[in-house]
Amino acid sequence: xWDPCSCEQRPLPLSPRxxxxxxxxxxFLLLPLxxxxxxxxxxxxQTCVCDNSRRHVVCRHQNLTEVPSAIPExxxxxxxxxxxxxxxxxxxxxxLPYLTHLDLRHCQVxxxxxxxxxxxxxxxxxxxxxxxxxxxxxxxxxxLGSLRRLELxxxxxxxxxxxxxxxxxxxxxLNLAHNALVYLPPMxxxxxxxxxxxxxxxxxxxxxxxxxxAGLPALRRLSLQHNELQALPGQxxxxxxxxxxxxxxxxxFTYAGEEDELAxxxxxxxxxxxxxxxxxxxxxxxxxxxxxxxxxxxxxLDTLPPLQGPGxxxxxxxxxxxxxxxxxxxxxLEWLARARVxxxxxxxxxxxxxxxxxxxxxxxxxxxxxxxxxxxxxxPAAARPRAPPGALREEDGEAxxxxxxxxxxxxxxxxSCERQGLQAVPRGFPNDTQLLDLRQNHFPLVPRAAFLGxxxxxxxxxxxxxxxxxxxxxxxxxxxxxxxxxxxxxxxxLSAAALEGAPHLGYLYLxxxxxxxxxxxxxxxxxxxxxxxxxxxxxxxxxPGDLAGLQALRWLYLSGNRITQVSPGALGPAPELxxxxxxxxQLREVPTGALEGLPALLELQLSGNPLGALRDGAFxxxxxxxxxxxxxxxxxxxxxxxxFSGLGPRLLSLYLQKNQLQALPALxxxxxxxxxxxxxxxxxxxxxxxxxxxxLAGLNLRVGATCAAPPSARGRGVxxxxxxxxxxxxxxxxxxxxxxxARRTHTKGRRWGADKVGKERGRL
Length: 764
Ligand SMILES: *[C@@H]1O[C@H](CO)[C@@H](O)[C@H](O)[C@H]1NC(C)=O
Ligand SMILES: *[C@@H]1O[C@H](CO)[C@@H](O)[C@H](O)[C@H]1NC(C)=O
Ligand SMILES: *[C@@H]1O[C@H](CO)[C@@H](O)[C@H](O)[C@H]1NC(C)=O
Known about the structure:
- The chain is 10% helix and 15% strand.
- The chain is an alpha/beta fold.
């Protein structure tokens, strides 16, 4: 591994004598190769120390604002750390083509220009740690085809654009720890075909796109500890098939289940320590057959089921869990013995077993109240502090503040008063609480400053609380809040200052309330909002400026409202918006004008609206980005030939099922479709459908299009039923170019009409 400090340990500068000896040697070796080292060797920037024999140049802490110009051309290691470069200009190092190591730590770098490192085709190690980068242009790292290790730790990166690392085909280690990443987009690491270790710890990741880790075929180790993941992103993780070690500690998971679909055939070590796990499904790791070490330290587990699947498991770390060694733990103990799994957990209770190592007990030691032996000990049945499902327990003997009726767990920093019949928001939670669960109580009013002092709160649950009003400043002091759950309440609006005090809020859940319009004034206080859930309200139109200021918005859910109109300017500009769900509303046409200003839109949900027809160019404004288009159950009878113009090879799925389509134009421009659903349409299989048949026949997809008419064709597949179209005019058009006989068929076909289709059926 590169030791960035190694150059300092060497005698620098060399004695003049040693220098000239090595120079002679170098001259001798290098003269035939071209570059005039003898000339270069004389040079050394004033502010630097040059060790020409080793080709090291060190210019640390010199307040340099640009790369010094007189660096010897043959330099291999250049150490510029602790300067004030601010910006790395295009081709800043083009005169140093022999560089293998470049150290730019602590250089206050804010910008790496496109092509900054062009010409450094031999560079192996690049250290950009501890700078001020908040973004990386897509071509910032171009030209680094030999790079083995890239350090970007300790910057301010908030997002990665797919393709950023596309030129780094030799990179083995990428370090992105201690940045501000919130989200990983699909294919974020595309091109890193040799990368073995990806460091993403100490970020603010709460979401990984399902394909965020695709294209990392060599990845062995992934570090994701100290992030904000609330659920195991099994689908995304399973893309990294070759992972052997996965570090997920210090994330606020509460549960790991089979549905998380963690499927990692090579995984040996899994760290899930210091999270908030309360339960584990027996099959949670069923698809990790080679798992050897499972670290569950510092969670909230009071017991654990025998795990099914990981037959090679040998080590199960359970320290710091409140394990209850009652009869419920017998299956666990039996399994540990049978499967020869070593475990290090200790019992929190019952009293007579407190502190005992779980591993040292026999199943017969584990008893429950009601067992004769247990009653003799006189332990009351109530001693078992079985919490209600979903709630959390307080640690024994800890003097932490916690409102009565609530449970405040110190290790997970979760506090809960779920379903306690509370009439007002309680106060007095521990000031380090990260998750506060108040759902299913009765708080018609959330007063001003209701959560003051909880500056570490990340997640606030207020679902099902009959909330009618959030007073201005209700969220004051919640500077760390990322998730706010207000679904299933009675909110009809939010005043302008209702959401002030939580400027980092990323996820706002307002579904199933009584909103008649988007609470746009209140939303202006949320410049970082990432996902807005407003499904199942009574919004009837979207007006210009409704989402103004939500520059970071990526997902917008408005399904199941009563929207009849989306005015131009109502949604945009929203430069980051990727998902727009407007399904199950009352739209009579595609709101084409409102799609302007959404350059990043990937998914548009319009199903379940009474659209009727699609006009030419209906999706033109989002044609360059759209990947998934939902138009199912939209009463579509007609689609004009130019309806999908503008949409091209980016489109991956098209949902048109359950409409009233009798015909559909061919859509050859959609050349990369992976899914087309045309089922449940009454296609009329006469010659006007030939282009569609042709197009479908060339797609290697199941499309579900069946004929409803003419009666003789009913039930046949539009794609497979070649005979229905064989005699249509134009059928042989392609062959006609090749053979004269085909041309004859073609003319014959022209005379025969659509009515021939029925007769032809008999031949099959
Ligand atoms: C760099 O600038 C700082 C602050 O102006 C100064 O104290 C320091 O001496 C400078 N260092 C060099 C090597 O010039
Ligand atoms: C939190 O409360 C404790 C005492 O309970 C106090 O010592 C600590 O300073 C408080 N921290 C903050 C950030 O207010
Ligand atoms: C449209 O199709 C998708 C995918 O099959 C489905 O999930 C969705 O519920 C459908 N929408 C309506 C309104 O039927």
